[in-house]
Amino acid sequence: MKIEQSKIVAALTIALFCGFSVSLSGFLTVDNLLSLLRSVSVLGILGIGMALTVISRGVDLSMVANMVIGMALAIVIAQPGVMVAGGLPFWVALLLGVGFVVATGAITGALVAYGELPAVFATLAMGSIIYGIGRVGLISSDSNYLPADTAWIAFLGSGQVAGIPMPIICFLAIAVFFAFILKRTTLGRYIYAVGDNPIAARTAGVPVRPTLMLIYIVAGLTALVAGLLISGAVNQINTRLFISTMIYDVLLVVVVGGIGLSGGKGGMSNVFLGTVMIGVLLNGMTIMNLSHTQQNLIKGLFLLLAIVVDTLLNPRDEQTGQQGDI
Amino acid sequence: MKTWTKVISAAAAVLAVSAATVSAQDKGLPDPRHDKYVDAMSGKKVVYVPIGMGYDLSEGWWAGLQRELVPLGVDLEIRDPNWSVDAGVRTLTSLIGERPDLIMVQSPDEQSYSRVLRKAEKEGLHVVQIQMHSSHSSDIFVGADWIQVGEEVAKIAANHCGPDSSGKISIMQGVLTASASIFQVRGVYNILDQHPHIQVVSNQAADWDASKARAIMETVVQQHPDLCAAIGFWDTMDAGTGAAIREAGLQDDVFLVTSGGGHKDACDNLENETFDVAISYDVPRQALELANAARALLQVESEAGAFKYSHYSPLTVMTKETLDTHRLNGACWTKESIASK
Amino acid sequence: MLGLRMNLELVRKWRYQLIPDHVVGEILEKRWTDNAIPIVTLAGVIAALYLSIPDFFSSYAITDYSRQIAELGLVVLAMTIVMIAGGIDLSVGSTFAIGNFTALYCVHILGMHPLPAFGLTCLSGILCGAFNGYFIGYLRLRAFLTTLVSLIIFRSIVDLLLQKHAVGIMATFPDSDLWYEIGEGDLWGLPYTIIATGMIAIFVHILFSRMRPGWHIMAVGGSRRSAHNAGVNVKRTVFLTYVASGLLCTIAAFMFASRLSSASSDAGNGLEIMALTAAVLGGTSLGGGRGSVAKALLGTAIVLLLSNGLIRLGIQGGASSLIFGIILMLAVLIDVRWLKNRGKILNKVYVSPTYMRLPPAPETGAGGSSPYAQNDKLHHVEIIGLGEIEGPEDVILDENDHLYAGTRHGDVVRFLAPDHKKMEIFAHIGGRPLGMALDADGNLVTCVASMGVYSVSPQGKVTKLTDQTNRSWSSVVDDSRLNLADDLDIGPDGKVYFSEATKRFDTHTWAVDCLESRGNGRIVCYDPATDRTRTLVSDLIFPNGICTSHDGQSILFAESWACRISRYWISGPSAGKVEPVIPNLPGYPDNINRSSDGHYWLALLGMRGPALDLAQTIPGFRKRMARRVADDSWLFPNINTGCVVKFNEQGEILDALWDLGGVNHPMLSSMREHKGHLYLGGVSNNRIGKYKIPDAEPNWTGFTSYWGRAS
Asked: 10-residue block means of pLDDT along chain B (341 residues)?
């Protein structure tokens, strides 16, 4: 029987969860579990977009750039005197931000689909370009504060419904939506087909290139949603997030959850699993009073453990390994 | 015919000379100091090397320097290492080769620039250090006295956390090796050591990064929900610290003290109670002092490093209640307001 | 009208003689053309910076850049080594930070001498590399993910250590002059660090181009599975690439530490992106198998000059990020397109026909008065080895009457005397044996396609005589290696004269050389006494058969597409000169051999046709054909009908032997007279013919004709 990585991660997560519940006082409380989920839900939303690209045998390293620039662009555009002397209503500005993200997503998708660039490089370069365009053109400072008429964003970022923080609800809603798309619609089938074997998919009549473009546009849009939640929570978005290692965390959530980089496998449950595992780990360590850096170290070691266990249980063979499969 | 024209031209010449003399007497005398000043400024190359553009302090200084120096004909240039220490060192090294008349530099940490700044001095280049200095002192330092800033914020936090509170205080440093962290934390402990009931529960570095500060603070407030006060080392970074506090619903319980340039964003954060106290080292005034330092160094004929002095900025304690007064004194600035002053 | 046409043809002739079209294809074939794009990019960057910033390349600045190249170059080299083996190392920046910390800790806090500190720094890098290498090489984890995780792990370790020691490092100034000298000192304007990096780069270059470990890395990256099947220890090789990467990163970090003593947590941040960009800009491919030291250094120079230039121009962080992104994207785009289309372009432009006008072909009609007149003399020949042998290009008999022939399978087979019914494999060479000759000691000397000239002893022992000649300096490709040695003969002094039909095509595509009809071939001499090989005559149009004249003073050689026989004097007053013997044949000549009556036999492997003769005068037509028409529809020389002719020293045709019925020997590439019979071979035949020559000397053998005695 083949033991999938997702099952290993699930087992590890449950083991961690039980271990923490027993050994750490204050872990197994509703408040703590909610705050656990809330703290990783932005990561989870980014993970959803990333998962779509990874399933289609790509990767999107420009997500954080899209997130900060798309959001900051909307904020700047809404300011008085930028577009309209009195300032735009924020939702109009946000639509322009959406337009920006759709455009960059389409360009990235076109580079991958039509330009046949390796997704790693195309999105790496696009990340730089998006950040550069934003910072050169319009956004003059790192920190961009939300305008006043945006209570609904603050609600998204830090409000609660029935005691459940909004970011969790957003994360789950988006995950359920894409789970439906992936499992129940033709588009979902296409995405798996493209990731599994692009050439076979093309032969079978799947519109490979348009599907790829759509995936990168959707990834950009989820990034923008994550940007909304972040700025809702802290009332601002800082473009220097682009320079941080956040994008690696997103990628790791996806991969640790069990979505292989060779594409065609995995789904939203994997993203959820990966996110929850990171959340449990971080939360437990927080209760154990470990510093931020110590947590990073342990998180890294734990991720390594997950990958090692997966590889040991599902070894790759010299004869069947794909060339260029890194 | 000929004598007639000679007479006329002679008369004209006399008239012209006397008219010139008369006008000179009427319009005052040329001032040699003025000419010297104009000569000392015009066409001189001054290069500004912040640790990165795009944040309030560097933009504020830049706006002020432009406002003060460009009209004098100074050739003002900017080199943006964009938060990369390595790029900063490369910039300075290449500046030594270019030999501008003055370098104005902000060091990301104590050590990285010190060797190259010493070399610049040896090569005879005048250097003004801004706000965060390097362990090598150059001609003039303009910026905050970090020991004093640390003592001020610590005093405020310690006063807030009396013996009846939990006495728990967290410290959010910037880049550990930056002068703004090393000396400020010294100042903080100078005060906190006098208050035995105060306990520092967290002392971590967020590298001037608001999102990192938020991640760290999220952990801290979960670990210590009874945290009394948080000391932050820079208001832009502490927007993240404050956000974490607010997300945890502890906005009214945790007292956040920070410091910064007194930018409008800081005022907004005081207004919306993200910060409880913000100490300002008054960037518009620093910009003016920087410009004066430049004017001085462009005029003196002494060797680089011949005399060295520091120009510490006075500090203002800003709270939500006192904001209006500070606004009158030029706080809550934006780079546009500095440029247009 | 006619005059105009003649003039146009003259123009065409000169145009094709003066412009060497084939060079384009040969240049494209070179591996260094890979570097063309990065070199052009670098030149463009240098030009742009030179024009926009006047003192950008002052001597001071150049010293400064070389210091930066020394550090970044090592990191890019590290990335390149890993990428060549098919992996990726995202942890270079964090490893660099670890190295920086180790160096600073040893020198500043422990107060160590820089030398042991250097050793410990290297050790830290080797450990980091071994960490990655163990997981990726031995446990077969994915490189991308593993190094992503180790990036985080190493960085957290550095951050934790810095929290403890940063202030301590900052506060101490070690009084070791050597420590400062490493990072800041120079030797005649050249910083020590660039000297060190240069030596490392040269070593790595030699490693990849000349040494076994480097070849193993290339092989693993080129095709991991094949390397594994070929016996390369793939796991260890991959492991070692990561160790090398870690080591190089920390050496760079040591230089950095000595130059700046910066205990900032910023050290090495984002270095992985910079190194990756540089590697890709230089032309190293993700996925392995392609990359070199030169590419790594080119990429480094481009990235560094650009980033310095952008800072110098006062461009702010956002804009330089934009420009870098665009450049990275263009580099990858060009790289991908180049790799994808290079083969296609090469296929299209490789065949480069040239102008050739043959005189009108002599008449060959049956019953005519022409000496070539067709007949059916070869219709009734004895058949040897029918169906047993494939493609005996040449045949030869020894003094014991055994019949030897080469086969398509890379063997020399022997049909045993007296009846030649029994066939045995005499020797296995591996390449296809073509022309053959016996030397004075009875060794069978043979030209082997794509391999060179080999000798087979009477006991069947194979020895290589030569596989290369002197390189001709006007050639773009290295033509010293023998490509298609075709026929040979041995002079009285034992020197081996052989023809190389074409340098540009191989055994499978030799007929395409006819489309070019350029002088792609040469006559080469191997001297066993000195073991030296020299080219005698070059620029020959498919030189094929070679035969030493009866008096031993000259050799006769055939040029197939030029349809002529010439003589090359090897001794006597005209030594070294070439003179025509038969200027115009009706077909394409192949092997030449002596006949018992003091004349020569010549095989014509195919007959000329007017269509191809005309096409030879219109290179543009053939070029279009080669580009636009599938190769099975090309206009090829006819090699289905040929004959054997006999000619004398003056080049007069004495006899012609045909198989008009086309049953046994419609096509011939060789014939050999032996004791009154003519043995017939053909490059695409499945038999050897034996023709009884009327009135021939019944005891004459080739061996006695050459060496005058029985062996």
From this structure: 62 60 68 86 91 87 92 89 83 87 90 86 92 89 94 93 89 88 92 92 85 82 88 90 84 91 88 90 92 90 85 91 85 86 71
To the nearest 5 percent, what fractions of chain A are helix, strand and coil? 70, 5, 25
A302 or B20, which is more confident?
A302
In A, minimum Cα distance to B235 occurs at A143
Residue type, A205: G
Which of C60, C261, C316 faces B80 most closely, judged by CB atoms?
C316
Q: Which residues of B touch A143 (CB under 8 A)?
A: 55, 210, 236, 239, 265
% of chain C exceeding 90 in pLDDT: 42
The side-by-side arrangement of strands in the sheet containing C433-438 is C433-438, C444-448, C452-456, C462-466
The pTM of the full predicted model, rounded to 2 decimals, is 0.76
Say yes or no for a CB contact (<8 Å) between C328 and A128. yes
* CA dist., res. A24 & res. A28, Å (int): 8
Assign C233 a pLDDT band (cuts: 50, 70, 90). very high
d(CA B64, CA B36): 23
Least confident of B127-131, C4-8, C526-530, C618-622: C4-8
For residue B142, CA distances in Å to A177, B26, B127, B152, B169 come to: 56, 43, 11, 19, 30
Q: CB neighbours (10 Å) of residue C517?
A: 25
Give dist(CA C700, CA C596) in Å, integer.
Answer: 6
Is C489 strand, coil or helix?
strand
CA angle C406–C408–C412, rounded 5-degree value: 25
Instruction: Kindly provide the ipTM of the predicted complex, given to two decimals.
Output: 0.83
Among candidate residues A58, A52, A37, the one with its CA nearest the CA of residue A280: A37
- pLDDT of residue C340 exceeding 80, the answer is no
3-state helix, strand, coil in chain C (%, to 5): 45, 20, 35
Q: Which of C100, C180, C264, C305 to mutate to test the interface with B (most CBs of B within 10 A)?
A: C264
Identify the CA nearest to C702 among candidates C567, C598, C602, C594: C594
C288 to chain A: closest CA residue: A324
Placement of tokens 């050689």 in the chain: C557
